[in-house]
Specification:
Helices cover about 85% and strands about 0% of the residues. It has two helices and no strands. It has two domains: about 45 residues; about 45 residues. The longest helix has about 40 residues. It is elongated. With about 90 residues, the chain is an all-alpha fold.
């Protein structure tokens, strides 16, 4: 296999992966749009039992932010596992 063929294969895989990622993002945005559209009915007085305290809102928001950071950390660790072997072999070549 030639260097150009290897590059073409890598590029084709990268484009395929990008398409999958973008499709997942679009799907997520569609779901968010549907949830936001349903908020008025979810927030009706029949469905909501009182307003939360500021302390409860802060706790919920902090918990969500922590979850986001944990997910990002896991993603970066997975990314490092994927990229590190390739980077090491590129350095030794």
């Amino acid at each position: 296999m030639t260097y150009i063929e290897i590059l073409e294969k890598i590029q084709a895989q990268a484009l395929s992966n990008l398409k999958e990622i973008q499709a997942a993002q679009i799907s997520t945005l569609r779901t968010v749009r549907e949830v936001v559209a349903s908020l008025p009915s979810l927030m009706s007085s029949q469905n909501v039992e009182g307003m939360p305290t500021l302390s409860q809102v802060v706790e919920l928001t902090t918990s969500f932010a922590t979850g986001l950071l944990d997910q990002e950390k896991a993603f970066v660790n997975q990314l490092t596992e994927v990229v590190s072997p390739a980077a090491k072999s590129a350095i030794t070549v």
